[in-house]
Predict the structure.
Amino acid sequence: MISETLISKVLDQALSQGADFADIFIENTYNSRINFNDNKTRQSIAGKDFGAGVRVFYGQTSIYAFTNDLSEKSLLEAASAISKAAKGDHQKTIIDLTRKNINNIHPVKISNNSVSKQEKIDFIRKINQASRDFSDLITQVDVTMMEKMQHVMIANSEGLLVEDDRTYSRIHVSSIATRGNEKQTGTAGPGALAGYEFFLKLDPAELGRDTARRAVTMLNADYAPSGKFPVVIDNGFGGVIFHEACGHSLETTSVAKGASIFAGKMDQQIASPLVTAIDDGTIPCEWGSENIDDEGMPTQKTVLIDKGILRSYMVDRMGSIKTGFDRTGSGRKQSYRFAPTSRMRNTYIANGTSRFEDLISSVDYGIYARKMGGGSVLPGTGNFNFAVAEGYIIRNGKIAEPVRGATLIGNGADALMKISMIADNLKMSQGMCGSVSGSIPANVGQPALKIDEIIVGGRK
């Protein structure tokens, strides 16, 4: 990577105009991707990306510059540029760098580079074949296998020097069912902070069948009704509503600006007493986990909401300066091209005490959202609009016929208060989360839960 001597020079240069703090993030990343559709491997690419970003703080202002030229000249020029962007009164020099060893709780058992491309393609072909064998209505199957191996080095003017390796593995499957001009899609995208051993734990045939089943079921379904109904949202990716409508509003990225509906509500009740919500970066080998965040702080488990009471935000270094709350190891970013901000990791609603069957049997007429799709949210208000990718009518306490085209419309804070039952079947699902510091791996999760009333948009 870069010598400690050069790192010290860069940090000294960054502090030269009186900055309060400086840090440097150095990255070397290998990415690999295989795209498969129409029964063929359409693309197989791999490459490296490397570079560094330098940041300074002047009070509550941060300035960031990056370069993919790791020469001494380029790094010192970047540090000089940001040091001159403002003027401070401090005359600081860096504390002697002290290398900090970290405890790797996400060990890689099989390196992705040790497995042949043919073995990976054979795995993908099994998914493709199982999906197509499920039904003649399946007309297209798209599979993408993604692998990423990232090495980072982080140092700052407080003397921190730390390195970490992160290996990500994920596969995304999309099966499309067609009848005439109508199409429906079933998707899955499991992933982990792990090596090729993650793929070996998956059942490729089951991935193909499950996505095909969802596509065919929705193609044969009638349209969903519209109105206000009780809704049971299933576990796993159902947590995307909490992630989008509430999670982003608990990051100091929005709290510090007053752009969050939860700003100023610490230790107040913001959810049903049944709700405990957690953001945890320490779960071994989970998609959103890390050993350290992108500011070099060890990751941790953060209880955001405890039995309905707001107990913590997700706090990065600048968020801590602006709000006064302690850092939570939540400073994350996509790459050296971005400055870190407070971000989610593995964010989920904790298990309740009810059985899934009890949630369903408690509803006379409503909607069962087995799998959620995409949506949109206004962070300042928490108002959301999310599609149901796979939905069913609940009638007389039983899951009845499938329905398509359902949309859940509501407000995050309001929905949290209307949760009346939570099951004991917590599950995590993987996604990519976008914000001002780029797109990062993040888990969403929850047990199945019941919201007593929510607006359902439908065509009937």
Summary: The chain has three domains: 4-99, 112-149+166-220, 227-457.
